[in-house]
Amino acid sequence: MDKALEILKKYWIAIAAVIIVLTSISSFNNMVGYDEAVIKHWADVETDYQRRLDLIPNLVSTVKGYAEHEKSTLTAVIEARAKATSINISANNLNSASMQQFQQAQAGLSSALSKLMVVVEKYPDLKANQNFLELQAQLEGTENRIAVARKRFNESIETYNGYIRSFPHVVLSRLFGFDRRDGFHSEAGAEKAPEVKF
Asked: What is the model's pLDDT at position 189?
């Protein structure tokens, strides 16, 4: 009887060990899959931001021909583009500091572009220029693409972070080095509606 209990005990220990190993393998593979989704969605975000950066020189050239004396605005756009171009972060280095730096550079570029669009209102000939209208439409479309890409990126971050922080995955994520990632956050003061004065 004792021998049968001992064999049964070894059998259950072996089954438990197999279950633990299989669960660990499955959890690891899921973490890798969610991590890869984050990396892919980050690449999509970068692609859309790069598309915006690529449109800006043509936009500035078109505006320059009509609004030559708006040099300070054009210079601000060019400088903001250069700053945004200089900030590159890897999908493997998505921490609060790097994301904040990236967002600040992109917000600076968005602000400079907004000022450029205000300047354009002074020039009816420019607003009627076909090249400008096409560039403006492409820029608007790109801004929409950026918003969608950021949303998808944040969703993949949420899935990844939720998975690695839930039990028992939290134990394995720490063991295998899967750390929490940061996504995009709204700008400070974004909860307040902007004041519009005419």
From this structure: 52
Q: Compare 87 and 151 and report the one with higher pLDDT.
A: 151
Q: What confidence tens digit (pLDDT) does each residue in 164-173 have?
A: 999 989 999 9
> For 68-78, how does the pLDDT look when each residue is reduced to its tens digit (9 = 90+)?
667 788 888 88
| Beta carbons within 8 Å of 42's beta carbon, 6+ residues apart | 91, 94, 153
Residue 150's CB is within 10 A of a number of other CB atoms, namely 19
Contact 157, 181 (CB under 8 A): yes
Rounded CA separation 40/34 (Å): 10
3-class secondary-structure state, position 129: coil
Classify residue 153 as exposed, middle or buried by CB count within 10 Å of its CB (0-12, 13-18, 19+): buried
Q: Is 122 a residue whose pLDDT tops 50?
A: yes
Per-residue burial over 158-179, b = 16 or more CB atoms within 10 Å of its CB, e = otherwise: eebbebbeeeebeebbeeeebe
> What stretch of H or E contains 115?
helix 96-120
- The residues, any chain, with a CB within 8 Å of residue 85's CB and separated by 6 or more, are 53
158, 183 contact by CB (below 8 A): yes
Largest CA distance in the chain: 99
φ/ψ region of 188 (left if φ > 0, alpha if ψ in -120 to 50, else beta) reads: beta
